[in-house]
Amino acid sequence: MNMRNAKRKIGLLLILCMFVSMLPASVWADGSGPLSTAVRPAAAAGAKTGPANQPAPSGSGGDYVEITQQQLASSTAADVAVPFSLPEGAFGSGTLQKGATYQFDEDTKVLTISGAGQIDDFNSPKDAPWESYSHWIKEVVIESGVTHIGKNAFHGFDALTSLTVPYDITADPAAFGDCDTITKVTVPDHWTFDSGALDISSNNALKTPLPWAVLKERITNINIADAVTTDITKDIFAGCTKLTDVVIKNKTAKIAEDAFKDCSALTHVEVTDTWKYADGALSILANEAVKDPVPWTSLKDRVTKVVISTGVTGIEESTFAGMDKLTDDVAQRPPVVLFEGDAKSWGAAGAACDKFGLKAGNDKYLIVSFANGSLIGKCGDDASFSFDGTDTLTIEGTKIDNYGTNT
Fold first, then answer.
1. CA angle 87, 89, 94 (to 5 degrees)
2. Quick one: which H or E segment has residue 72?
3. What is the pLDDT of residues 207-221, one digit of tens each?
4. Are 38 and 29 in contact, with CB atoms under 8 Å apart?
5. Residue 45 near residue 70 (C-beta atoms within 8 A)
6. pLDDT digits (tens, 9 = 90+) for 6-58
7. Cα–Cα distance between 196 and 362 in angstroms, integer?
C-alpha cells in the first residue's frame, strides 16, 4: 500500500515538472524565475542599484537575471545591458521655464537642448526635468541660441562623456558639478578638448578669460590651427602641468616669454616648418624663425643644443640670448651650434659671427660646427678662427681670450 502511494506521488511530481518546463519565458518576466535575456542588478533592502547606483528604468521590458552588488560595483552603465526606456512619469522632451527646449534620444543617450532661451537654475539636481534618467545620458548637445546654463543643470551626470556647447554661452560654476567622466568638450568652429588634446581653431579661443581654463590641469597636447593669428600671450598656458606637446601651424606666431610658465612636463614645441624644440634641442628650420624677438624666448632656459638648417641665411643678435644651458661638456670650452650645411652655404648667416659674436646667455662665444666637421667662431673680442675639418686652424685678429687650461 505504501509502495503504491509512493509511486503515485512520483508520477504526480513528474507531470508537474513537465508542465513547468512547457511554460513560456514571459511567465518569469517579473524577475522571480531563472530565465533571462537581460540584466537586473540585485540589491539589498533599501539599496540603490543599476548603472551609476540607479534603479533599472521601469517599462524596459524583457526578462532579467540578477547580478550581485559586488559585480555591479566593477561595472559601468555600458556593461549592464538593461534595455532602456523612460522611467514612468518622466518626459523625454519639453520646454524649460526660461525658453530653451530639450529632447532626449533613448537610443543614442543624447540630450539635446535648443531654441532661444536659457537653461534654468535648479535649487537641487533633482529639480531638473531629466534627473530621473540623468545617469543614462552619455552626451549633452547645447545648440546655438541657448545663452546660459543654470545652476545644477547637469550635476552628477556620471555617465556623461561628451559635451557640445556654443562659443558665446555662459554657465553657472555649479552647472556640471561631479561630472568627472567628461572626456570631450566641443565648441564648434572654435576649440575642442578630447582625452587630453586641446585643438584651437579660432582666435576667440585664445581670448581671456580663457574658455577652456577649467581644463588646464587635464591638457596633455595642444594643436593650434593655421587660421589662428593672435599672439600667444604671457601665462596663456601657464599651469598646464601635464602638457607635453605643442604644435603651432601658423609660421608667424608670436609667443610671449612666459607663455609656458610652470609647464614642467613640456618636452616638445613645434611651429610647422619653421622651428622645433624637442627634449632640449632647438632646431631652426627657416628664416621666419630668426626674428627679433625670437619665438622661442619662453623656452630659452631649457635649450641645451642648437641645430640650424641649411635654409637659414640670417641670424639675429638675440637668436641665442638667454640660453644659459647651451654649453659644452668641458669647462671653459665655448658651446657649439651645429649648421647642417657646409661653410660655403653658411652665406649671409656667417656675417652674424663677426657682427654679434653669437654669444649665448652665459656670455660665451658660440662655435658654429658644419656637417663636414669644419668650425668657425670667435675666440676674443678682436679675434676669430676657422678650422677646415681636417688639419688646418686659422686664427685672425689681435687678441685671443684666455680659456684656462685643458681646452
1. 100
2. helix 69-73
3. 888 888 888 989 999
4. no
5. no
6. 555 555 455 444 444 444 443 333 433 322 222 333 333 333 333 334 443 33
7. 37
